[in-house]
Design a protein that fits this description.
The chain is mostly helical. It has one domain. Helices cover 67% and strands 1% of the residues. The chain has 11 helices and 2 strands. A two-stranded antiparallel sheet has the order 1-2. Helix 3 runs parallel beside helix 6, helix 4 runs antiparallel to helix 11 and helix 6 runs antiparallel to helix 7. The two termini are 37 Å apart. 43% of the residues are buried. The mean pLDDT is 81.
């Protein structure tokens, strides 16, 4: 007997919810969880002498709840977020890659004085929010985005199509969801931003494939944003999140600074991200790394 149309739209023949709907539910859950925990931190931190305790507790809860939600929706393996010594080492390497890549992207603007990170630096470093809240914000935001786009969307797509196809779709979606943040900017900067974020999504997808878990991609993502917003005081993807007292930028050199969008919309950022993608593709080619979806599952 033929199933009703509505049933076929939402469910497989086995009765299980289709992958696209599971991904949507997981995205909604992740966004809600991040908003809830960041709101809690913002409310509680003024009354606590050691906000790092709240920060660590909320981050741990985020990891545990994300793992539980993934197991319930996916039913195959886990996200592999729980720490091991190897993952911590990979996370440290991710911090070096992410922070170093951002600084390299910003180097031309820094050398030419187009960005002056010293402006407002003392205020940023003296702010308890900068040292704790911004760190938590960028860590949870990076975790949620990696969990959704690499841990869920990419991994789910890789079960049904080629790795290359899954990487392309997940990288495009990663870029697409950020477009609204930069709407209204000059077309050249918008195009650079869309391209650079897509390349970043591809690069972090390769990090996920290379390591088999999210830790290196997660912490590279966090370090890029934290270095850009908190250390340099530059806009992060068109927002002022985490920057507090902003550094001064020269409007005449927007192709170096990314203007009101940030380094993600700069030409140096484009070259650095192309180099990162090229490096990871080179490593993959030398290792003949064409993994099956099962290699990205964690029992």
């Amino acid at each position: 007997m033929k199933r009703p149309l509505v049933s076929r739209i939402f469910q497989l023949d086995s009765g299980r919810l289709r992958a696209g709907w599971r991904a949507l539910l997981f995205f909604i859950f992740s966004a809600g969880l991040a908003s809830l925990f960041l709101g809690l931190f913002d409310s509680l931190s003024p009354f606590v002498r050691k906000p790092f305790f709240i920060e660590g507790s909320l981050l741990l809860l985020t990891v545990l709840l994300s793992e539980s939600a993934f197991r319930w929706l996916d039913g195959e393996g886990t996200l592999g977020l729980l720490p091991t010594l190897q993952k911590i080492k990979e996370g440290f390497k991710g911090v070096l890659w992410g922070g170093g890549s951002l600084l390299l992207s910003a180097l031309p603007a820094l050398l030419l004085g187009a960005i002056s990170p010293g402006d407002g630096l003392a205020e940023r470093l003296a702010s308890s929010f900068t040292l704790t809240g911004a760190f938590l914000l960028f860590t949870i935001a990076a975790l949620m985005e990696e969990v959704v786009f690499r841990g869920y969307v990419f991994r789910t797509l890789a079960k049904g199509i080629t790795i290359w196809g899954a990487m392309a779709i997940s990288a495009f979606l990663f870029s697409f969801v950020h477009w609204a943040q930069v709407a209204g900017n000059p077309p050249v900067l918008f195009g650079l931003f869309a391209t650079n974020v897509l390349l970043a999504g591809w690069w972090m997808g390769r990090l996920y494939i290379r390591t088999g878990n999210l830790w290196m991609a997660w912490w590279a993502h966090m370090a890029w944003n934290y270095t850009q917003g908190t250390v340099l005081g530059v806009a992060v993807s068109g927002t002022g999140i985490g920057s507090g007292d902003r550094a001064s930028t020269l409007s005449g050199l927007v192709l170096l600074t990314g203007g009101d969008i940030g380094i993600e919309a700069s030409i140096p950022g484009l070259f650095v991200l192309i180099a990162l993608v090229w490096w990871e593709e080179r490593l993959a080619f030398k290792a003949d790394r064409t993994p099956k979806a099962s290699s990205l599952s964690h029992p």
